[in-house]
Design brief:
The complex is a heterodimer. Chain A is α/β, with parallel strands linked by helices. Chain A is globular. The chains are: A alpha/beta, B mainly alpha. Bound molecules: adenosine-5'-triphosphate and magnesium ion (MG).
Chain lengths: 534, 375
């Protein structure tokens, strides 16, 4: 469970952590330019991912990178982290030309990175992952105790003192893994910390924690490169903004707080985007009950959840990460067995198992795209049709032409870049991979969509398109059950909202009757927030 | 430093090409070639496995090198086109039985498993179909028995693995021991001679100058290729092996499919049992010894990823042919089996090294991690 800033538990944790979280090297000078990139170029087969990037980062600032999905942000930071080698261009690190031949070299130079895609070793413990590659050692032996202590200290500072350092990473939920990879970046002595969409998997209050830590870091003169598709976050934490479009810097060093949103968006996309949610139908057009869930329970995850979704209705579930939302969705979908309760589709009780749910017309876009949804080495079109290829097949023979056409249609609607459906999914940017995951269930033929964080990592433009598609499907009579950590998304897209806290539904209301603060109060109220300001 | 995905090259050898293969209907060609035009340069050949096909080209290179070695060491023989043709047929015939087993093995490995029991299933099916009782039903009865035994044993493997949740390695290792034991007890450790001329003729005869065994291999390979690349079964195989959780959440019945994969491997073993029985005109419990290793090795050098999710039938076929060519090369030069095995071992290692090199970009971080944690 996440803890708010002024919680006693955190306070005691802070007592453990007298030392600063990350030690800035002694010779750090605030305001000095630590990193300067000129004309950086990086190509992949058939794609110019970086095509002349300029970037200047100063010590002690939060430098935000903005850009659409596939603009080259992650490629840029991977070049900085030594994962990729640039084809041409200069990297100037603390006034001197530098090349980082491998990730160790970059780390040694003082660049720590939180990657967009988790890069943890699942079968090692939390502490081992946090200190991977730079373990505390004496005489060749790893000093487990010291590592565990330091890890616990970092985790408490991140507001997650409850994650045991000895726990296997495999057994953590997605958000927990994100915390561990943050802990890993913070376990280094660094001058520059790069964060590639760290907030994508975090809930609202956790983002607060993250920002508090970023402020601590920058106060010591550490520079932070921060990537996010959420403009509100950039306004809140950022100092300067550099915008990338199609691998090029289209604007550099804009003030993060005062640059008008329209300006940022048009520099990112080359057009203006009305970042609005589609209108709700004015009349009550929702039909009969499609999904009825009664008394669904899984110990430790959620208890006694009852809900219904009508045809043509979008129901949103708001709640913190760890409030049991994803588990609930997976249980409804048959991927987990409930201990008690029933799931009915069209009035009929579903047999256990995903197969029965899919046959009854359900489709679920899971939370974790890499481990739960994608065949990374397979072409895009085969990933888009992974759940539906049987439908286009005749006598057991697949119809690749039809599949390509369908995938291409989705690729066009969701602005997939590059729009070549024969590419392996592995070569897509994070946001574009997410579009493939969600797109899989938008092909039609699904009666009930279960969407778990559907817009994770998706840029503003494509997000608006995705909302339109979801609303259009609802207008055709599809029921939608949406889980999102972004409260405005739930309130803006859904017709009806359920608020979950600690595995229980604590409030159900029409979306229009709730506002963001009410929902936030609800999700955080209770034992953990006692006495905390709303 | 190559940190991108392996640069694909356009090759004429493109067995899995959707656009090149005979399409089901004319519309498909139209759409596919249309895409080639609009989808940017070179996109027409990208498809089921750019890397796989590139590797196949490498295997053809290895094959060519082996032929050159043969021609250099025995120039007199290679000067005679008649001998060369017969030698090619001999190699293919040598490859045929293991080749059939390897097709089944390729499916199992792509599906994320491994089948160590193939050799034992061949032996059990061979012995069972040559018992006095079975032979009394004639050739048809024998063939049916061999196939049925293969499928049933494969199903047992499959059930143990997918519903009994046994690790494939353990389950099929146990089956290896058990099936050979059963074969020995059925045959009473005797060699059972096949008295069916129909069965015995399969290996002895040629049609239009080509041995029937080679036709069988060709048919199985073609069927395997079609199933893997053109059917929902093949698509499920790749999904189940590539990311079982994603497959499950997409509504694929992962367990049932895993079970079917082992049954398919068993079926291939049944076919191989008939071929081998025919070659020897007899069957015994020790036949098809170590076929599992030959089949796995061939699949691996053919580019099938041991962790599943990727592999090609054509690659596996080339793997089998390369091994058969090496055996042939050593035989015509009168060299020892021992030397031959050492060369085979070297080729397996080299192939796996190439595979790792190809996946370097993907696994770089992990590899680094492993090294550092090992220290
Ligand atoms: N390994 C790769 N092989 C081929 N192309 C790649 C590879 N990695 C990235 N690309 C391509 O490079 C471009 C930039 O990708 P990148 O991941 O940097 O985007 P991004 O700005 O981080 O997007 P997102 O917001 O979706 O994370 C994309 O077109 C992507 O398809
Ligand atoms: Mg990215």
């Amino acid at each position: 469970m996440a803890l708010p800033e002024d919680d006693p538990a955190t306070a005691s944790a802070e007592a453990v952590a007298e030392a600063p979280l990350v030690e800035a090297p002694a010779d750090t000078v605030a305001g000095e330019v630590v990193l300067r990139l000129t004309d950086l170029v990086k190509t992949f087969p058939g794609v110019r991912a970086l095509d002349g990037v300029q970037l200047e980062v100063r010590a002690g600032e939060v430098h935000c990178l903005l850009g659409q999905n596939g603009a080259g942000k992650s490629t840029l930071i991977k070049v900085l982290a030594g994962v990729h080698q640039p084809d041409s261009g200069q990297v100037e690190w603390r006034g001197e030309p530098a090349t980082f031949a491998n990730p160790q070299a970059a780390m040694k130079a003082g660049i720590a990175t939180i990657y967009q895609e988790l890069d943890l070793v699942e079968d090692l413990s939390v502490a081992e992952n946090a200190f991977l590659g730079h373990e505390y050692r004496s005489f060749g032996f790893v000093r487990r105790g010291r590592m565990a202590r330091h890890t616990r200290q970092i985790l408490s500072r991140l507001g997650h003192g409850e994650i045991p350092p000895g726990r296997m990473v495999r057994s953590l939920p997605a958000a927990g893994k994100q915390i561990v990879s943050m802990a890993r970046a913070l376990s280094h002595e660094a001058r520059l910390i790069i964060m590639d969409e760290p907030s994508a998997v975090l809930a609202h209050d956790e983002v607060g924690n993250l920002f508090r830590i970023i402020r601590e870091l920058t106060a010591q003169g550490i520079a932070v490169i921060y990537i996010s598709h959420r403009l509100e976050e950039i306004r809140e934490i950022g100092d300067r903004v550099t915008v990338l479009k199609d691998g090029r810097t289209t604007a550099a060093n804009l003030p993060a707080r005062d640059t008008p949103t329209r300006d940022l968006v048009s520099r990112m996309t080359g057009r203006t985007i009305e970042y609005v949610f589609p209108d709700r139908p004015t009349d009550d057009s929702a039909g009969a009950d499609l999904l009825q869930v009664e008394g669904l329970t899984r110990t430790g995850e959620f208890a006694d959840v009852s809900l219904n979704v009508r045809a043509g209705e979008i129901v949103g579930i708001a709640g913190l990460v760890g409030s049991g939302r994803s588990e609930l969705l997976e249980t409804i979908y048959g991927a987990r067995l409930p201990e008690a309760g029933t799931v009915r589709m069209d009035g009929k009780v579903l047999r256990p198992g995903v197969g029965a749910a899919v046959r009854a017309g359900m489709g679920m876009a899971p939370e974790e795209r890499k481990s739960q949804a994608l065949l990374l080495g397979e072409p895009i079109y085969r990933n888009v049709t992974l759940a539906t290829f049987g439908r286009y097949a005749r006598l057991g023979f697949t119809n690749a032409a039809k599949e390509r056409a369908e995938a291409d249609r989705i690729a066009e609607t969701l602005e997939l870049r590059p729009r070549d459906v024969d590419r392996p999914v592995r070569t897509l940017s994070g946001g574009n991979q997410q579009k493939v995951v969600v797109g899989r269930w938008l092909l039609g033929g699904t009666k009930l969509l279960l969407l778990d964080e559907p817009t994770r990592g998706v840029d503003v433009g494509a997000r608006a398109e995705l909302y339109q598609v979801i609303r259009a499907l609802a207008a055709q009579g599809v029921g939608v059950l949406l889980v999102s950590s972004e409260v405005p998304e739930v309130l803006g897209l859904a017709d009806r909202v359920l608020v979950m806290r600690e595995g229980r539904v604590v409030r159900e209301a029409a979306a229009g009757e709730l506002d963001e603060n009410t929902v936030l109060d609800l999700v955080m109220a209770g034992s953990l927030m006692e006495g905390a300001p709303a | 430093m190559s940190d991108a995905t392996p640069t694909p090259t356009a090759t004429p050898e493109r067995p899995q090409l959707p656009a090149q293969s005979p399409p089901a209907d004319p519309a498909e060609t139209a759409v596919a070639s249309d895409k080639a035009g609009s989808g940017g340069k070179l996109s027409w050949w990208r498809g089921d496995g750019g890397d796989g096909a590139k590797r196949n080209l490498g295997l053809i290179g290895v094959l060519a090198a082996l032929i050159v070695v043969g021609a250099v060491t025995k120039p007199d023989l290679y000067g005679d086109p008649n001998w060369v043709w017969n030698n090619v047929l001999a190699i293919l015939q040598l490859a045929s039985v293991v080749g059939v087993v390897t097709v089944g093995m390729t499916f199992v490995i792509i599906g994320g498993g491994i089948d160590l029991s193939v050799g034992a299933i061949v032996a059990l099916a061979g012995v069972w179909c040559t018992t006095v009782a079975t032979q009394s039903y004639g050739a048809g009865g024998m063939i049916f028995t061999a196939l049925a035994v293969g499928v049933c044993v494969g199903l047992v493997n499959g059930v143990l693995i997918s519903y009994g949740r046994l690790v494939p390695f353990i389950a099929t290792l146990a089956m290896l021991v058990a099936a050979r034991g059963l074969a020995a007890s059925i045959s009473n450790k005797q060699t059972q001679v096949s008295s069916s001329t129909f069965i015995n003729d399969i290996a002895a005869r040629k049609v239009i100058g080509i041995p029937i065994l080679v036709y069988i291999l060709g048919a199985v390979v073609l069927a395997g290729w079609v199933v893997l690349n053109r059917t929902t079964f093949g698509r499920r195989t790749i999904a189940v092996g590539g990311n079982p959780e994603a497959a499950r959440l997409a509504g694929i019945n992962v367990r049932r499919h895993t079970m079917l994969l082992y049954a398919l491997s068993g079926l291939c073993c049944g076919i191989a049992a008939i071929m081998l029985t025919s070659q020897a005109t007899s069957a015994q419990a020790a036949m098809a010894n170590l076929y599992e290793l030959d089949a796995i090795a061939a699949a691996i050098i053919g580019g099938t990823l041991l962790s599943g999710g990727r592999g090609t039938i054509v690659g596996s076929l080339l793997g089998v042919i390369i091994f058969a060519t090496i055996t042939n090369l050593f035989a015509i030069n009168g060299l020892s089996i021992e030397a031959q095995n050492m060369v085979k071992g070297g080729i397996i290692v080299a192939a796996v090294l190439v595979q790792q090199f190809q996946f370097k970009s993907v696994t770089r971080l992990l590899a680094r991690n492993r090294v550092t944690t090992a220290t």
